[in-house]
Prior knowledge:
Mean pLDDT: 91
Low-confidence stretches: 1-33
CATH class: Mainly Beta
Number of helices: 9
CATH topology: Maltoporin, Chain A
Strand content: over 45%
Largest sheet: 22 strands, antiparallel, barrel
Helix content: under 10%
Number of domains: 1
Shape: globular
Distance between the termini: 39 Å
Structural class: mainly beta
Amino acid sequence: MFVQKSHRARKTTIWLCVFLAYCLLVPAMAQETEDLMEMSLEDLLNMEVTTVSKFAEKLFNAPGVITVVTKDELDRFGGTTLKDILERIPSLTASTVYMTDRSTIAPRGDQVMPSSSHVLLLINGRPVRESLEGGIKSEMYESFPVNVIEKIEVVRGPGSVLYGSNAISAVINIITESAEKSGVAVSGIAGQSGAYGSRAKAQLKSGDFSMVAAGQFLKKADWETDFTYNNFYTPVDTTITMKSTIPNEGLGTYVGINYKNLRLMGSYNEWKNYYWVTDYATVFPFPTHGINNWSKGFADLGYDLTVTTQWYMSFDVTYTRSTFNTEAWPNTNRDSYEVVAEWSNYYNPSEKVGLVFGGLYNHFSGEEWGPDVTYTDASRYSIGAYAQLNYQILQSLNVITGVQANKVEGIDLDIVPRTGLIWNPASRINFKALYSQAFRAPSINELSINFPQMMGNPNLIPEKVSTLDLGMNYQGEQIQVGVNFFHSQQKDVIFQNRDMTVVPAPMYWNGVEVKFMGIELEGKYYVNRNLFLSGSMLYQTNEDKNGVENVTPIANLGAKGGISYKSDRGLTLSLFNIYQGDLDEKFDTRVNPAPESYNLLNLYARLDINQIFSLGTKPNFSLFLQVDNVLDKEIWLPDWGLLPGKSIPVNPGRVIYAGLDLSS
């Protein structure tokens, strides 16, 4: 159930909480930039990462194609939402779906599914999955409190050997701050046309106990736009044009607690936006568009145990609950949860050998219902066991090999492997050759929904992917560059089969096969401590088993670049541009603006008043300005998941925000 509040009541509550938190905790806050300033530029570029192998290793030597968004980059380029930040990461493209996953991220052009189910999202290494549809993350991308993020690690390519289902095209790991000191930071933001928001973060450190808590609320301006509905089922096209008002607001919270070897963290996020089911809009005598509400609650309880100096283990129980509803047809409500119990082991008998192994049990349950009818009410389980070995066979050559065996209820035992080589012919150059497989188990709805417009199929089997990565990387003292070629083959992809010569009614079905090929370039360069440059490029092609090219609504060519200047006197000024090329002509529209190439240029500026005027360090007062979509380009994308020939609005154009931060 969703608890609805008026904008005025919600705004008052948020600001009251921010004010009280600041008044109570401001005396003890410490500067967070000190640790960054103490790191060398090379260490900023070549941080330790944990996502690839589940244990700490330098990014340069990690056996994966991985990008890290550091705290320094987060501070430099800003961003109102997690999705804003993820769009800047190489080979990740912001996309959208017509209804139930309105905010998605497509890695390497992969938007085969009408959802983000090919991406696995982690918080501090723990999975945040939605099990009814198979992977909805809209509320996480739009409302997770970005002020608590320490860094983001993104591994492109399969990750099922260590992480199980859904890690088809990428694993995104959001790593939060830990409380090393006590204090608080608060901020407020206001924008055009009544947009507003606020953030608060509190940290507490006392002996072996530490806690960090953060919250974020953001209401973006409502977007009023003309929208045309067109129905292709009738002999003569019928069109209706109306003005739609698109809301966009989200609330997110996070709490992390540590006491000795015990860990507890939790997050709650909700988001409100709009949806369109335009295929039926001119047939039904009632609206087939309206407001969607998403929410996701997440919690993890973990315990770390050191067995010997070379062997330690972790025990985790992770719970994720997702809800969803629409305020018009199909008047659907969803409520699902997943519980994961996992035992992980990390064994390093020598500097040359690293072994990770463990086992896990998943329980999924979900329900979907409409007015006076239940469409889905089912549950299932899965079990898995995994192992991965990193072994340095020569001084310049590392080998990685791993496997996961998984058994989903009602589906035969399956195995996914990975293997690879990392060759370092020189101290700052390496070559990576990696081969991995991954899977996505059918979701509860795909197996069992009984809805008039779509039926479940209990005979579905997991989707599979096989990916080969070949890359070369250079790591310097102030520069990091890499080039990577990938070839990925997806098989048994689940789709909505509406061919009545094959199925008795619209039904989920295995059968889509898509091949992706592409090249990725990325680089970061600290000219000096003040000036930072970054850039990336992706060119990918894809085709299905019938030879049809460009089957996903993602441009073949995309490029990104940023420049940031951070002075010693407290001024930060940054620009970041995201370019997406033209789509295939099959995505041209007969109604509404056609999807086009675009440059999404964002500006972020910040003034640290204390530094500029030498006011001391406590409390710290900063002003910031953020301009999204500086070039004022209105962006429409295909209504992915429905019949072709239509588009839906995604970005309203230029939006200007201004705000202030307080900390001490």
